[in-house]
Design a protein that fits this description.
single chain, mainly beta, eight-stranded mixed beta sheet, globular
C-alpha cells in the first residue's frame, strides 16, 4: 500500500496514535519504528493487525532499525507443536533478500524448525516463511527471531508461546442497566474472570481488579471493580469521544466474536466516562452504540475503588442475535492504572494490567483469551 504516515510525538518520545490512510485504505493500530534522519522522521510500518494473523510481519522500505519486541502466540495445548508463520512485505522500490534466523538459548523450552531460512522478494511482493516450534518440556528462556536484511538492517523479536486464557460467560434471561452500582439481579448469575497480570509478564497487579461478565438479553454485560486511591480526585486528559482515553485511568475491552485473530473491536472508557471505540477493520470512525456507568465507592474497611458497568448491544458487535450455548469468542480486558506509587516521588506511574497477556501490544489479537457461553450456574471463573 502506498501513501504517507504522519506521527505526532509527545513528551519523552511517546506517540499519539491515530488512524492513517495508506493508498486510500484506512489502517488502524499500527506499530511504528521511528528512524530520525537529517531533515525529517521516517516511519516504518512493522505490523498492521488487519494484514494477517501471522506471528510477525516484517515490512521492508528503506531501512529497519534495530528493535527488540516480544511476539506472542497463544495456544490451546502448550505440549504440542505450534505453527509460526512469518510474513514479509516488500514495500520498497527494489529487490530485498536476507535471512530469518532463530536463536535458541540453552535449555530453551522450544526447538524451532527450520532454524534458519533465506528469503528474496522483489518490489511490491509479499511472502510467508513457515516455521514450527516443538516443545522440549524444559521451560527455559524463549527463542529469539532475527530478521537480517541485506543492505537494510536487522530486527529482533523474542517469541512468547503462552497457554490460551479461557473462561465461561453465562447466558441470562435478564436485562442489565449500566449505572455502576451492580444492583441488578443479573450480576448474581455473572461469572468472574480471574488471573490478571501486569502486561509483559506474570507479576500480579499492584491494585486489585475484579471483572465479571454475563450475556444479558439486551447486550453483553461487563462489570469491573478497580481498586484506586481517591478515585474521585483522579484527573483525566481525554475530553471527547475517540480521544486518547488509554492515556488516562481507564479500562479497555477487546472483542473478536468470530475468532479470526485479525478483526477485533475495542471499547474503552476513562474514569470520567469519556469513551473510545474502534474496529481494526473500520478504524476510529466506527462509532457503535453502547453504554457505561461509573460509580466511586469505599468498602467498610476503607478500601477505595471505582465500579464501571458496560453494556454492548449485540448488533453493535455486528451480530443479529445474542450468542448461543457453546459459542466461543476471543476477548481481552486491559486496565490502565495510573495510580502506581513511584519510590522517592510524590508522583504516580502507569501499570498496564491484562487478563490475557499479549506481550507488548493490545493489538496482538491472536493472544486474546477465549470465552465460552454457557447456562447460568455456579463456577465458571476464568483461568
Amino acid at each position: 500500500a502506498g501513501g504517507h504516515v504522519s506521527v505526532l510525538t509527545a513528551d519523552e518520545g511517546a506517540l499519539e496514535w491515530r488512524t492513517y490512510s495508506l493508498g486510500g485504505r484506512l489502517v488502524d493500530n499500527l506499530e511504528l519504528s521511528i528512524a530520525p534522519t537529517e531533515n525529517n522522521t521516517e516511519a516504518v510500518i512493522e505490523k498492521s493487525d488487519i494484514l494477517t494473523d501471522a506471528l510477525a510481519v516484517i515490512t521492508l522500505r528503506k531501512e529497519i532499525k534495530s528493535i527488540t519486541r516480544q511476539v506472542c502466540r497463544a495456544v490451546d495445548d502448550p505440549s504440542k507443536e505450534v505453527e509460526l508463520p512469518v510474513r514479509i512485505l516488500n514495500q520498497s522500490t527494489r529487490l530485498f533478500s536476507g535471512d530469518l534466523v532463530w536463536t535458541i538459548p540453552e535449555n530453551s523450552g522450544w526447538k524451532i524448525y527450520p532454524q534458519q531460512s533465506a528469503f528474496s522478494l522483489s518490489s511490491g511482493k509479499a511472502g510467508v516463511v513457515n516455521f514450527r516450534a516443538v516443545p522440549t518440556g524444559t521451560g527455559g528462556p524463549a527463542p529469539e527471531l532475527l530478521a537480517d536484511v541485506q543492505g537494510v538492517g536487522y530486527m529482533r523479536q523474542q517469541l512468547v508461546i503462552t497457554p490460551r486464557k479461557t473462561a465461561t460467560i453465562p447466558i441470562s434471561e435478564l436485562k442489565m442497566n449500566p449505572d455502576g452500582r451492580f444492583s441488578d439481579s443479573i450480576w448474581k448469575e455473572a461469572h468472574e474472570l480471574t488471573g490478571f497480570n501486569v502486561m509483559g509478564g506474570t507479576d500480579a497487579p499492584f491494585h486489585v481488579i475484579r471483572y465479571s461478565a454475563v450475556a444479558a438479553t439486551n447486550g453483553l454485560a461487563l462489570g469491573l471493580r478497580c481498586e484506586a486511591k481517591k478515585p474521585g480526585n483522579i484527573s483525566t486528559k481525554a475530553k471527547r469521544r475517540d480521544a486518547n482515553v488509554h492515556h488516562d485511568e481507564s479500562v479497555e475491552i477487546f472483542i473478536d466474536p468470530d475468532m479470526r485473530a485479525r478483526d477485533y473491536m475495542q471499547f474503552a472508557s476513562n474514569i470520567r466516562g469519556v469513551i473510545l471505540d474502534r474496529s481494526s477493520r473500520l478504524g476510529i470512525s466506527w462509532n457503535p452504540r453502547w453504554e457505561r456507568g461509573i460509580r466511586f465507592g469505599r468498602t467498610e474497611d476503607g478500601l477505595e475503588y471505582y465500579n464501571i458497568e458496560i453494556l454492548i448491544p449485540y448488533n453493535s458487535l455486528g451480530l443479529p442475535e445474542r450468542p448461543k450455548l457453546g459459542d466461543k469468542w476471543a476477548m481481552n480486558i486491559t486496565r490502565n492504572d495510573y495510580g502506581i506509587p513511584i519510590e522517592g516521588s510524590d508522583k504516580t506511574g502507569l501499570q498496564v494490567v491484562q487478563w490475557a497477556p499479549t506481550y507488548g501490544s493490545n493489538a496482538h489479537s491472536g493472544c486474546y483469551g477465549v470465552v465460552t457461553f454457557v447456562k447460568p450456574g455456579k463456577g465458571g471463573s476464568g483461568n
